[in-house]
Amino acid sequence: MSFKPLFARSLAAAPGRLHMAAHSHHLWPDASFAGQVECWEDAARLADRKWDRVMGELWPEAQAEVAAELGTGRPDDIVFAGNTHDFILRLWSAAPRRAGGPLRVLTTSGEFHSARRQFARWAESGDILLEALPVDPIATLADRLAERAGAADLVMVSQTMFGTGRMVPGLAQLAALASPDGPWVVIDGYHSFMATPEPLGEMADRCFFLAGGYKYAMSGEGIGLMHCPPGFGPRPPITGWYAEFEDLTAPPGQVGYAPDAMRFMGATFDPSALYRFVHVRRMLAGEGLTTARISAWVGALKEQLAERLSGTPLATAQLLDTPSGPARFLALRHPQAAEWQGRLLADDCITDVRGDVLRIGLGLYHDEDDLDRFAAIARRL
């Protein structure tokens, strides 16, 4: 069995390439091309009236898909933006500052660049007071965050660490500490959304959840998403005009806000990513490809790939998580990681490197032939 036909356009565009970075820039399925074309055609056909279709049809369909994927069944708690960094700005502006003065942020040493860099710069400028706990030992990370959460206004932690692929256990106990008055708990789900079934579930009433379309949603850039728990931040200070569309009760002259997740909306946006996401979700449903089924497919490939690394220089690296783990990639730590990534690239084999960690990602568009081809290239490193 192979799912390559679903990605015919992307694979044919670079037939010699072996793309082993589905965890980084996931190849786009053909369904996304149909979505991109429909977006253009709607703009040409409807002109100004395209927003009735975008906000009246595509937006609620996408909300419903995200809510179902998160396991909450609450579409009104979902809002979209161009990227997750937009949401970090809005959360920073809206979170309570219980001690008066700078926002107190508690996070980890393993967060992705969009949060890591922004938090570091805000700490440098005095706009936040930052505490970052070491990720390891990861088994106690949620406990350690919970112990320090009382001294924070906002806690941000990845559900699956982007550098190692390891999932943080026990986040529900951290979520239980969240309150509209502080602290707020924000889960970065970029490597769990559409990789782990129902990653939010019972935490929906307490947690913010960030993710996007670039990776396992297979929809490309331009679509960040956030689940917003009810009652948290009813009037975000950083706000766009879309955020007041549904507020018909505000007195004249007052800045109004929608009562649901739309309160965190910005302004006019490029809707093409929304079209791509909806088309990809329709394709997956039509093929019977649930996140659980895709994860089983990728998990089997990961285990086979780990076996094929035997006899290659990559076998000397430290495997940072078990192949049966939830991440869609193998993370190999070795001083030569960057050198290996460069040599693989010279053979038109795409992986990526984070410091001394080589990441090899798998997706629906891979099969056993790709594993054999990768192993052959790896033996020449």
TrEMBL record:
InterPro entries: PyrdxlP-dep_Trfase, PyrdxlP-dep_Trfase_major, PyrdxlP-dep_Trfase_small. The keyword Transferase applies. SUPFAM superfamilies: PLP-dependent transferases. Keywords: Aminotransferase, Transferase. GO terms for molecular function: transaminase activity. This is Aminotransferase class V-fold PLP-dependent enzyme.
